[in-house]
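pinned: reference chain
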Amino acid sequence: MKHKLFLLLIVLCASSMMRADEEFIIRQYNDTVIRTVTDTVVRTEFIPDSIAKQREVVIPTDSTDRRGHYIQAHIGLGYGSLGYQLTGADNRVNGSFSALLQLQYAYYFHPNWGVGVGLWFTNYTSFAHIGGAYQWKDQTDTDYEQHYDHTATVQKWRERETIHNLGIPISLQFQMRKEDWKAGIFAAVGVAPSFSVSKKYKVLEGVIDHSGYYPAWDLTLTDMHEFGSKDYKDAPQSKGKLSVRPQATFFADLGALIPLTKQIDLLVGGYFNISMNNANSSDKADLGWKDDTFTFMNEYKGVYATTLANGSHHWEAGVKVGIHWHYIKPDKHEIEDYFEPFMREETRTEYKERQDTVLIARADTIVPEHIQQVAKEVEKFNKIYFAFDKYYLSNKAKSYLNSIVDALNRVPDAQIMIDGHASSEGQSEYNNILSENRARTVRNYLISCGVDESRIVTAGHGSSIPNEDLEFEEMSRDRRVEIKVVYNNNVVIEQ
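pinned: its C-alpha cells
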C-alpha cells in the first residue's frame, strides 16, 4: 500500500512539472515557406527634351528701301530778272544775281517717284537803263502864259528793281540711286504759287536836260529856272514801290545725289523757274517826271510802271546744293517664342518578382500576460508617420511615443523593435539611409524619455516593405516607423 502511494505521488509531481513547462515552451518545429520577393532595378536615362522660352528678336529695317518720308533743304545762287523789256533803241534791261532758300517735305510712294510740298524764298532783280529825248507839245508856261514844247533829254538813267517772293512749291520728284552707285540722279518739276513780300525800285543815277521851244518867239530856252539839267537820284520820285500781282511759277530741278550716310544724301545740281503769268499790275503811264515846278508832267513810279515796259515774267536760273534726309524706321523689337533643347535625366524603377524557398526555424512561445498587455497598448500607437524626405518628429508623433513610454515604464522587462521605412520615391540606397534615420530618431526620443537603450533594437528597411494600412495615400503611408514589443527575440503578436 505504501508503495502505491509513493508511485502516485511521483506521478502527480511529474504531471505538475509538465504543466509548469507547458506554460512557456509548447513545441518547436521547422517551416518551409515559399515567398515571393520583388527585386528593384533602378535605371537612369537621359532623354532629349525641350522647354518653351521667350527671347527678344531685333528685326533690322531695310535701309535700302528708298520709299518713305524725306526732309529736303536747298540753297541756290543764280542769275535772274523781272523778265520784261523796254521799247526804244536807247533803253535796255539787265538781270542780276539772285538767291534761293527752299525747305520742303517729300513722300516717295515708289523707290523712284515721290511728291513734295514746301516753302521757298527768292528774289528777282533787274537794272533798267533809259536814254533818248522825250517831248511834250503845247504845254503852257505859267509865267508867260505862252504855249511851248517841253523836251526832256535823258543823259544818264540807271534804276534797280527788286522783288522778293515767298512761294509754296508743289512738285513731282524722281530719284534713282542704288547702293553700289557712288552718285544718283534727282529731278523735280512743279508749280509754286508765289507772293511778293517786298517790291521796290531805286534810281541809282538820273540826269535829265530840260528845254522849252516857244513857237511864237521861235526861241528855245535852256539853263533857266524852269529848264536846265536836273539830277533825279535823290529826288522824291527816285524810289518807291512796284505794283506786282501774285504769280504761278513753274520750276524744274536737276542734279546728282551723293550719299553721305544711310539717311542723308547731298544734292548738287541746277534749278530754273519762271512766272507763267504777267506779274506787272501797274497802271502804266507815259514816261514823265513831276516836281513842284513842272506840275504838268506825269507822276513817276519807276520804269516798270511806264508804257515803255512790256509784260513781266520773273525768271531765274542757277546752281543749288542741298541735303535730303530720309526717315528710316528704327529696328523693330519683338518677343519670340522658341523651344530650347536639353537632355532630361529620368530615373526609371523596374520591379521584377522572383520566388525563393526559405527554411524558417520557429519556436512558439507562450507570452506572459503582462507582456501581452504591453503589446496591446503599444499596438495602439505603434505607427509614427513622417513628411516627405524628413525624419523629424511632429507633435502628434511625440504624443504617441509618450504613451508608449508610459506602457514600457510599467513593465521594465519588455523590449521593443523599431523598424524604419520610406516610400518608393527616389533611389533605394538613399531610402535605406532615410529609413534608418527615422528609426534612430524615435529611438533617441524614447531614450530621452527614460527608456533604457538596452531594451531597444532598431532597423531600417528602406522602401522594401509597403504599409498595409490604408489610412493614408499610397506614398504617405509608407513614410513611417513601426514599433513592436519583442519577447525572447520574437515579436509579440496580439492573439
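why pinned: The mean pLDDT is 83. The first strand starts at residue 25 and ends at 59.
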